[in-house]
Specification:
heterodimer; A: alpha+beta; Translation Initiation Factor IF3; globular; B: FAD/NAD(P)-binding domain; four-stranded parallel beta sheet; binds flavin-adenine dinucleotide
């Protein structure tokens, strides 16, 4: 069963939202969706960039009250 | 009130001592009891491993007898926890004993898992354990030149270690007159040379100035020891003669086995530090799943917040403060210069130019740590 997981990386300067996602990806199953919460607007660019480079799916992002919700799917 | 601390490392020890001082009257009157269960009779100062890899610290300097660091009155036993029975407020230990508690704090730390990447453990040197740091020291002494690659796994404890080892390697080879024979190549998992933007802004030009090349968005997928090549998840590869790794980490197996958290990291409230969904289970140090650095200073600041809160629960019936995400890290910028980064959930760091004074402060802290663990600093 695929899951929807949330990584709350708000206020994370180090390791930061992308690094949290990279760690979370390793623990996820193929098919899982991961939603990263980030207060760093740079995440809306650097997360999709990494996801495309590695070959997972980028499902989209939205901003709500200063928090970016970036959703991706593990494909392999 | 029975307070049980699981883990006698940085977080557990600072918390136990902090609590013992705050709760001295309650411990005397029998109203509070503090016990600690750990997996070792020795306390291990892991930051010293960075220097052990260069022969600048000896192994005996990394350890102290754990019991000697604890305030009188703390009941300490070496008997690792094997089972957490959170619904019953009990743990079961390796010796088979069952220990009850009213409040438990879990600080069992994290461990490197190079074995999860094919070829990494067999083909790289690292400094994350005493044994591997000693092996790295011997290897560095023998190394006469070639391409040295630094590879970084995620998550890892001590976020500054990748930069520190790189700059210290540079000075090691320079001092041995090998700089023209050695090519240092740094790799990093995200799109800049460090997760902290201000640190990356300082470190990238510093690497260029020193002739160190770097490659970002590089997550190690496998190491081919025959071809002497590291391949990345991103599809690139880089050759090496000597591979230095900062391996990815997991929490302790006991956490995973008891299903307390994926990867051995326990879901933890970012301000109150209780395990999500449990009001009498607290988590600190490397064991949390919080999106902050896995560092001794993190464990230290969390222990101070928790010490104040648990004592307040005993004395007032409720916690009194939030942990604000504070972290402080020294950054060695070579063999004799250093800077530091301090930040929390709201404020990014603003590192200053490296200086000799900060380096000597870090060296002094390596000794002062034992006072800090006792809670005196
Ligand atoms: C090479 C290196 C360099 C570092 N440099 C720095 C630095 O410069 N600055 C910094 O701030 N941090 C640094 N760190 C990180 C720092 O050492 C850790 O983040 C810190 O020790 C975490 O504290 P902790 O209490 O969570 O875990 P630990 O200190 O690892 O303690 C865990 C404790 O739990 C015990 N335990 C394990 N399993 C069980 C069980 N089942 N039951 C009971 N007890 C158990 C262990 O025996 C141990 O006593 C460095 C680490 C390394 C490896």
């Amino acid at each position: 069963m695929s899951e929807h997981k949330v990584i709350d990386a708000r206020g994370s300067f180090c390791p930061g939202p992308l690094m949290e996602l990279i760690a979370g990806m390793k623990l996820a199953q193929v098919g899982d969706e991961i939603e990263v919460l980030s207060t760093d607007k740079g995440s809306a660019d650097d997360i999709p960039e990494w996801i495309r480079k590695v070959g997972h799916d980028y499902l989209g992002s939205r901003e709500e009250g200063g928090v970016w919700h970036i959703t991706v799917k593990k494909t392999k | 009130m029975r307070i049980l601390i699981v883990g006698g490392g940085m977080g557990g020890t600072i918390l136990a001592n902090n609590l013992a001082r705050r709760l001295a009257p309650e411990m005397r009157s029998g109203k509070a009891r503090i016990s600690m269960l750990s997996a070792s009779e020795r306390h291990f100062y892991q930051p010293g491993l960075l220097y052990l890899a260069f022969g600048r610290i000896t192994p005996d300097e990394l350890y102290r007898d754990q019991a000697s660091l604890l305030e009188p009155g703390i009941e300490f036993r070496v008997d690792p926890v094997e089972e957490f029975m959170l619904d019953k407020n009990q743990v079961k230990t390796k010796s088979g004993k069952v220990e009850g508690y009213d409040i438990v704090a879990i600080a069992t730390g994290s461990r490197p898992v190079p074995e999860l990447i094919p070829g990494l453990a067999e083909n790289s040197e690292t400094f994350y354990t005493e044994e591997t740091a000693l092996r790295m020291f011997k290897r560095l002494r023998e190394f006469q030149g070639g391409r040295v690659v630094i590879a970084v796994g995620v998550p890892h404890k001590c976020p500054m270690a990748p930069l520190e080892i790189t700059f210290m390697l540079h000075d090691w080879f320079k001092d041995r007159g090998l700089n023209d024979k050695v090519k240092l190549h740094y790799t990093y998992p995200i799109g800049r040379v460090h997760s902290l933007e201000n640190v990356a802004k300082w470190a990238a030009p510093e690497m260029t100035r020193l002739g160190i090349t770097y490659e970002t968005l590089f997550n190690v997928k496998e190491v081919d020891g025959k071809a002497k090549v590291v391949r990345s998840e991103e599809g690139s590869e880089t050759p090496y003669d000597l591979l230095i790794s900062i391996p990815a980490h997991r929490g302790m197996e006991v956490i995973e086995k008891n299903k307390l958290g994926a990867g051995g990291f326990i879901p933890t409230h970012r301000n109150q530090l209780n395990m999500e969904g449990r009001s009498n289970v607290y988590v600190l140090g490397d064991t949390t799943n919080l999106p902050i650095s896995k560092a001794g200073s993190t464990a230290h600041f969390q222990a101070e917040a928790l010490g104040e809160n648990i004592a307040a629960i005993v004395k007032l019936g409720a916690p009194v403060r939030d942990y604000d995400g504070k972290v402080f890290c020294f950054i060695e910028a070579g063999k004799d210069r250093a800077t530091y980064a301090m930040f929390d959930y709201q404020n990014p760091p603003d590192p200053k130019a490296p200086s000799k004074a900060i380096h000597w402060f870090k060296m002094a802290y390596n000794k002062l740590y034992w006072t800090s663990a006792r809670g005196l600093l």
